[in-house]
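Re: that backbone. Tokens:
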């Protein structure tokens, strides 16, 4: 009759203890007798950030051992109804449901709740929340953990408080607990990077007036007298250098000595972050009884989809049991299709990036012509140069394309991974992670790589410009350098992604829930049951955490790979993450059904991805400082080519802009008008070529080769110094804290001793 029926599944004590042994669940055997670590002298300062003890540590610290049904008297079983935590209970029930047979079809066994959900027999399967999030349960025996989590963790006004990780783990399971532990730790470490980045930015701000390059550009007697070659072919006019005065002043904010310091600092910071996280993770592994929990246990648990789709069987060398397997030929075909699809989509991103570059080239000429010939734009022409106008509009267009491609590829990636039929849940997640990350990496960072390493590097020179597809003249950097454009690109993509991400995560589920509950709101509470309320909430899904990690890892790339161009990136990330923790906790506690608890002893494959990005970040930042910023050419001029001892940087602008004779322009490039009858013009970008009256005219001067050699030497030195410091720091910091090692040894010793004594007692009784 179209009505929804609910079936409540409850696991009695006998079922729980049977499957606790099957799943090797660790339970308390004795209270921890190792005294806690020495008091922290900063405890009194940190008091405002602390949560109440009963919220932070809802249970005492115990030594634990794997559960055995035959040795129940060994364990501290005070109350059977509360002995297993809610997350353990829902994990056991879900484990049974995923393997429960319900019929046969063509001689094949049909089993598992997932299959019943897929074919529409059941519309949903979920563990219940223990109470309403805004009020405690009426049952006095209920802990009302959801209410506690909402009041102490999920409200934005608690943003300055620590997270109740033990309570999160108890209610949601270790996998969600470890995500919030990692996100909280990452946010804490960002605070240091944000402070140093802000200091570097303020240094640039306070030294703006001392910047000799922008002084010379803005000086009417210097910049006002330097005539620049046209920005586009035929339609653009000659222009004066001092029209870029404002942008050259702003570029000093990010292109100064502090940039180099910050690039080196972030190379070391990222190592400290990863090493200290390993220590934090090791402590959590011990505290959450995950020391002996290995992924092998998960490897033995086949995905129900794998068991259903694989008809052939072979003996497992570990369990010595017959189990389904996918033939090698079938695997090879599936991997070929998968690889081809991923390559096609990556090619699609590169094609879309080329389309944006073509847009830049086509619109650049229009902007240049418009800004020179339109009087109404005169007041802002100093700030909004053609290069900057093109960069801002192209960045916005690029961001829209990124979001559209993301939306489409997510569905493709899941379909490809399903088609591969991975053997275990761990394998499924790892494969999907690598596909999604590869795509997102190319999607989000390709435009930044273009501006940082390709834009303005292959433009030729007046009279011999290089053209894309023989039609559009390649882009030149602003006379103040390409770094300010990289900063613009980074800010728009990073800030846009963060704002869009928070809208998607918070507002969309809230609107969906509000709309779904519109009929139920008129019903009294006694007619709107707990399970109906939970049914009307959004589904967190098996890949819910995957998207959270992906979002944070992409952000991690922005603050490490391109941080030399934007010292405020860690501050933006810190502000976002403070909001992100509360948005994630709020939506999980109030807007989503309770997820099925799952175990995890680390952040998994994401750790390897972060390590890879940490190494790549040293290389990219070295190249940004050398090739994108103007630092190396300025230093070479300062030490080797300056002729003014009183003011060594004076004359730098004149020295770095090569001279071109206008009569040498071919017809394709020559402006239609030259009312002032200029004879020479300067290259729009930094270039070192011989003047037109030299026998080697327009060829590179020796200064060009000196600067190139200095850039290469700088890259090699910076990379080696940072890598040596990184590896030394990693070697110095042990992955597992000494007190955690002692506790692990003590627990193993105690477990063996108690089991030995127990066996002796049993033997005595028999004798």
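Recovered sequence:
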């Amino acid at each position: 009759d179209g009505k929804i029926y609910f079936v409540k599944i409850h696991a009695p004590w006998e079922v729980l203890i049977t499957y606790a042994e099957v799943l090797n669940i660790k339970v308390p055997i004795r209270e921890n007798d190792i005294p806690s670590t020495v008091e922290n002298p900063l405890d009194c300062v940190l008091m405002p950030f602390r949560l109440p003890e009963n919220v932070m540590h809802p249970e005492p610290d115990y030594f634990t051992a794997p559960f055995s049904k035959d040795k129940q008297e060994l364990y501290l079983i005070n109350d059977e109804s509360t002995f297993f935590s809610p997350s353990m209970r829902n994990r056991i029930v879900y484990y049974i449901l995923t393997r429960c047979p319900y019929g046969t079809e063509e001689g094949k066994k049909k089993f598992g709740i997932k299959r019943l959900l897929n074919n529409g027999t059941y519309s949903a399967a979920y563990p219940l929340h223990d109470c309403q999030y805004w009020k405690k349960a009426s049952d006095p025996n209920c802990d009302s953990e959801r209410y506690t989590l909402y009041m102490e963790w999920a409200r934005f006004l608690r943003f300055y408080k620590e997270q109740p990780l033990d309570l999160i783990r108890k209610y949601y399971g270790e996998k969600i607990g470890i995500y919030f532990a990692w996100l909280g730790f990452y946010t804490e470490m960002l605070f240091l990077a944000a402070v140093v980045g802000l200091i570097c930015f303020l240094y640039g701000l306070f030294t703006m007036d001392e910047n000799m390059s922008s002084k010379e550009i803005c000086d009417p007697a210097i910049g006002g007298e330097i005539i620049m070659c046209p920005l586009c072919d035929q339609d653009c006019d000659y222009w004066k250098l001092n029209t870029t005065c404002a942008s050259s002043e702003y570029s000093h904010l990010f292109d100064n000595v502090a940039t180099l310091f910050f690039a080196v600092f972030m190379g070391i910071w990222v190592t400290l972050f990863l090493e200290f996280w390993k220590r934090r993770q090791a402590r959590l592994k011990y505290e959450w009884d995950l020391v002996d929990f290995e992924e092998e246990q998960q490897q033995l648990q086949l995905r129900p989809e794998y068991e259903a789709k694989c008809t052939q069987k072979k003996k497992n060398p570990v369990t010595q049991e017959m189990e389904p397997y996918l033939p090698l030929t079938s695997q090879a075909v599936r991997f070929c299709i998968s690889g081809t699809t991923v390559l096609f989509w990556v090619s699609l991103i590169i094609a879309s990036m080329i389309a944006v570059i073509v847009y830049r080239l086509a619109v650049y000429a229009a902007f240049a012509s418009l800004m020179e010939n339109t009087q109404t734009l005169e007041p802002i022409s100093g700030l909004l140069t053609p290069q900057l106008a093109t960069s801002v509009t192209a960045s916005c267009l690029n961001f829209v394309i990124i979001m559209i491609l993301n939306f489409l590829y997510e569905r493709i990636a899941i379909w490809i991974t399903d088609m591969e039929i991975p053997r275990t849940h761990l394998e499924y997640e790892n494969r999907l992670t690598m596909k999604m990350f590869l795509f997102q990496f190319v999607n989000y960072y390709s435009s930044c790589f273009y501006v940082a390493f390709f834009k303005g590097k292959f433009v030729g020179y007046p009279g011999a410009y290089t053209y894309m597809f023989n039609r559009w003249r390649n882009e030149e950097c602003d006379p103040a350098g390409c770094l300010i454009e990289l900063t613009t690109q980074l800010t728009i993509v990073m800030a846009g992604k963060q704002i869009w991400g928070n809208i998607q995560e918070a507002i969309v589920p809230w609107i969906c829930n509000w709309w779904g509950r519109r009929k139920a709101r008129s019903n009294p509470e006694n007619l709107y049951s707990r399970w109906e309320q939970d049914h009307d909430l959004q589904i967190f899904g098996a890949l819910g955490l995957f998207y959270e990690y992906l979002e944070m890892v992409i952000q991690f790339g922005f603050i490490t790979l391109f941080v030399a161009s934007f010292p405020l990136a860690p501050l933006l990330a810190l502000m976002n993450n403070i909001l992100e923790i509360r948005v994630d906790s709020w939506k999980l506690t109030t807007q989503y059904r309770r997820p099925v608890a799952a175990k995890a002893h680390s952040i998994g494959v994401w750790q390897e991805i972060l390590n890879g990005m940490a190494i790549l970040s040293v290389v990219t930042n070295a190249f940004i400082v050398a090739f994108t910023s103007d630092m190396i050419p300025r230093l070479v001029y300062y030490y080797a080519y300056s002729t003014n001892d009183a003011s060594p940087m004076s004359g730098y602008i004149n020295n770095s802009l090569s001279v071109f004779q206008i009569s040498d322009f071919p017809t394709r490039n020559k402006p239609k008008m030259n009312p002032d009858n200029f004879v020479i013009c300067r290259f729009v970008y930094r270039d070192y070529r011989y003047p037109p009256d030299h026998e080697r005219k327009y060829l590179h001067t020796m200064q060009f080769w000196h600067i190139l050699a200095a850039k290469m030497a700088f890259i090699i030195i910076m990379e080696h110094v940072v890598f040596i410091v990184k590896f030394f720091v990693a070697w110095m910091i042990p992955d597992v804290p000494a007190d955690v090692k002692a506790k692990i040894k003590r627990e193993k010793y105690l477990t063996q001793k108690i089991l030995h004594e127990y066996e002796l007692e049993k033997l005595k009784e028999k004798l």
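The mean pLDDT is 84. The chain is about 55% helix and 5% strand.
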